[in-house]
Amino acid sequence: MAGTTTEIPQALAMQTLDAARPLLEKLPFPALWIGEDYSLRWANAATPLQRPQGKCHECLHGYDAPCDSQGQGPCRSLRAAAQGQTCEFVHAHRVDGGLELFKVVALPMTEGVLEFHIPIDESFSRDALTGLLNRPAIEQVTRQGIRLMRRLRQQCAVAILDLDRFKRINDGFGHAAGDAYLRAVGEVLRRETRSTDLVGRWGGEEFLIFMPGCDRRGAGIKVQRLLAALRELRVEFHGSDIRTTTSAGIWTGHPRTTFERIYEGADAALYQAKAEGRDRLCFAREHLPPPQAGAQDHRFQAGQFA
Prior knowledge:
Oligomer: single chain
Number of helices: 9
Helix content: 25-40%
Strand content: 25-35%
Distance between the termini: 39 Å
Number of strands: 13
Low-confidence stretches: 5-10, 287-306
CATH architecture of the largest domain: 2-Layer Sandwich
Number of domains: 2
Order of helices and strands: EHEEHHEEEHHEHHEEHEEEHE
């Protein structure tokens, strides 16, 4: 979800904020004034704070550097404010151990920026067919999650799942049958993943899962179980029993690189799983220890994680 910026006549003056403060206090969602130095100058009662004073990224998220830049420059709100622009973008907050999407509307002030953090209506972030996060939403929260794991020095995993030979379902039974199968897949993925895992439909018959705090062994166990559950899935459609298998590629490790590199690693592992016969998972090679002679550590072996 790309952010947008819009020119406004002038930055909000301090007296304007003072006059509006009684109304801002009554808003059911967070409203906060952030100074040019990232200091949290004021926040309404709806703003969940991890600490009462300090930098905005410290008070709101427990981060030791600005959310958007990893310390490499102003965040997008302050960049837009410095140019006299209002800015809108999607941000992920840590809520009850997980991540929740908010739409941030940032208005420039004479001293910093006024932000509104509005919870996103799920109808805008959910895939209409499967009920999972849609592609913009899963990409945004995965990017935010990777940054969070990097700051916390925690491992994480990103898995890409792709239904094998799904085109045969559409060609043999029609697109309505394919849609019915995708809906059933969405139900399986929601049921079989943790509440802290983020699951989205990446496109077509491909799905992306972000697993915070998950190491290689844990990711292997979870994805193995998902593949087993999908292997057992049967969808009855007009008297026909529809089924298929699933392949998966997984990146795991401490996220010292970008979302793009992590996705490329998982995607390459998915192609490896397809090339080796489908209905299996493979790990991204570049994040494995050097293989022993004759070993094939990138490949999932039956019982490896039991």
